[in-house]
Specification:
- This protein has 230 residues and is α/β, with parallel strands linked by helices.
- The protein has 6 helices and 15 strands.
- A hairpin with a 2-residue loop joins strand 2 and strand 3.
């Protein structure tokens, strides 16, 4: 499984020719690196969404329409996408489904979810995290969430190769809580996300890695545009 980081919370996951993007917030970022692709250049078959906030929903509609891609999301978010003419596969928390590329299971996330429209905020149902399994490897994208003890259960029930965890504080876990999440989840590798995109979530991802590794686990800060194999 190959993972590419596109900043904030957006990751491209590839395996055996299948390309999936998670939370494709691309054009909304202030890209100083030149390594965040234009949504028009994204080629995927599936889009996975954790919730409907604009910094996660992002360029979903444009990418889905261009690629005729299927949006996999919690029911309420899937219905928003379906109403916009997109192909969808609706799921909900605790449910899993075997797709042609592998398996997706949704987990709880302590956060909110709403879709911004010209007439205000539309209800987006419950947010989620997700477990994506392809080619014998599993990545856990926690979405936006606070720390919760059931992360221990997730880690006990699933062998996690890479955990993608928010560390920016204010809206989600901060560094200390995210380090505790690593202890509960017990992944092979912990990767920070959802930090430094806006002033209110500025933090040092290297401090997260230092604390994770001081506890005997492996962490990595991914640069925007960087890829790795797990």
């Amino acid at each position: 499984m190959k993972i590419t980081y596109y900043g904030h919370d957006a990751f491209l996951v590839e395996n055996d020719g299948t390309r999936i993007i998670i939370d494709p917030f691309l054009s909304g970022q202030d890209d100083t690196t030149g390594k965040i692709p234009d949504p028009e250049d994204i080629e995927v078959s599936y889009i996975l969404l954790t919730h409907a906030h604009s910094d996660h929903f992002g360029d979903t509609l444009a990418i889905a329409r261009k690629n005729d891609a299927t949006v996999i999301a919690p029911f309420e978010v899937a219905m928003i996408c379906q109403a916009e003419g997109c192909k969808v596969h609706a799921m909900h928390i605790g449910g899993g489904f075997n797709f042609d590329f592998g398996r997706v299971k949704l987990t709880i996330a302590h956060h909110g979810s709403g879709y911004q429209t010209a007439n205000g905020m539309e209800y987006g149902g419950n947010p989620c995290g997700l477990l994506l399994t392809m080619g014998g490897k599993t990545v856990y994208h926690a979405g936006d969430t606070g720390l919760f003890l059931d992360m221990k259960l997730i880690g006990e029930m699933t062998s996690i190769d890479a955990a993608l965890l928010p560390i920016g504080d204010n809206f989600t876990m901060g560094v200390e809580d995210a380090v505790m999440a690593v202890s509960l989840l017990n992944p092979v590798l912990a990767i920070p996300m959802h930090y430094n995109t806006f002033p209110v979530i500025e933090t040092d991802p290297n401090e997260f890695v230092r604390q994770v590794e001081s506890r005997g686990k492996k962490g990595k800060v991914m640069a925007i545009g960087e890829s790795l194999e797990i």
